[in-house]
Amino acid sequence: MVSAYINHLVKSAEGNYVRRLEKFVGNLGLKVHKFLDVGCGGGEKTLLIAKACNAKEVYGMEIDEAGIKDARKRKIKIVKEDVSKEVWRVKDDTFDFVFSNNVIEHLFSVDNFLINIKRVLKKGGTLLLSTENLSAWHNTASLFLGFQPFSTTNICIKKHSIGNPFSSVSGEEKDAFWLHRSVFTSRALKEFLLLYGFKDLKPVVSGYYPFPNVIGNQFAELDPSHSVYIAFLAKNEK
């Protein structure tokens, strides 16, 4: 019964999160020329955030062929690139707005990732970086019980979920691209962005397990350090 409830929360949580990001960006009244989603997948979320910031040109960076195919169907201009590469084949100062959702936690070198984002983003441009929160209550409770945190159960290609009997993630083998390698707490993500010269950080949070989304969002606003998802909107200062 516990696993079924957790599974329901997990399935609804990301949609809730993306809606909050969309609303947050929409309220800023931005008018963006060139927009890039790093790790865009099929592009569904790309278009939601791009529309919220009134982007004229929408680009998506992706390496997965299935994702590229779907994104192109949505008229997204594709930059075919492995986001984990040391240097992206993208010119400096190209984009006004860079968005990346649930990508950074899959990378070995988060430094290269942010260096590349900073390089391709124009001075004064905007970054919206979002990820799972390692210090969310469901993760800290797992550690207290001696289990692997939910956000780091997918660390092995032989079995997608190990170390936590309550994890709702399926147990079959998975491609290495889907493994979690660098999961941040809210505090760590903020410090990381500041170290690379990003300014005017504004947090966006959602979800607060074990509560359902509507109530959870309210608790997340009161206690952002333990929200399920975290994001920061930040300005690029070269």
UniProtKB/TrEMBL annotation:
SUPFAM superfamilies: S-adenosyl-L-methionine-dependent methyltransferases. Residues 36-128 form the Methyltransferase type domain. This is Methyltransferase type 11 domain-containing protein. GO terms for molecular function: S-adenosylmethionine-dependent methyltransferase activity. It comes from the Bacteria. It holds the Pfam family Methyltransf_11.
